[in-house]
Amino acid sequence: MLYSRILVAYDGSNLSKKALNTATELLKESSNIELDVVTVFEMPRGYESFGIYNENLLAGYRREAEKMMEDVEKELKAKNLPNKISTYILEGNTPKMLIEFANNHDSDLIIIGNRGLSGFKEVFLGSVSHYVVQRANCPVFVIK
Questions:
Q1: What pLDDT score was predicted for residue 119?
Q2: In the CATH scheme, what is the homologous superfamily, with its name and number, of domain 5-143?
Q3: Is the separation of the CB atoms in 139 and 112 below 8 Å?
Q4: Domain edges within the chain
Q5: I need a labelling partner for 3 at 20 to 30 A (CA). Which of 51, 53, 91, 106 fits?
Q6: Is the Cα dihedral 15, 92, 35, 131 positive or negative?
């Protein structure tokens, strides 16, 4: 078995859905592979300058992220995979949070789209996948 713990960066975009599908195909190789599906939300840059950085806005982002991850959980459950699968919602700088999560959870593969837009804001940009590729301590599979 080549991988034991896979992290998928997920934001609801088509490329992140493709990344998740790629991961589920890898899971079929062994029931011992664990999957972590991670989404990160952060306040859009510049909003704090306008006094918009507030708890209500962040709570709205969190609710949207929770709904998105509930949908992911339902989709994965329907596939009846025997693997251990977990979803996580993180808050902060997207690429840094992904690297930190991968390091703290011993991920041995990261799957990420090269660009993405979620329904509620930009989350994964080309610069995010570039940052992850440059700083990850494990292989990174970039989906195009």
A1: 39
A2: HUPs (3.40.50.620)
A3: no
A4: 5-143
A5: 91
A6: positive
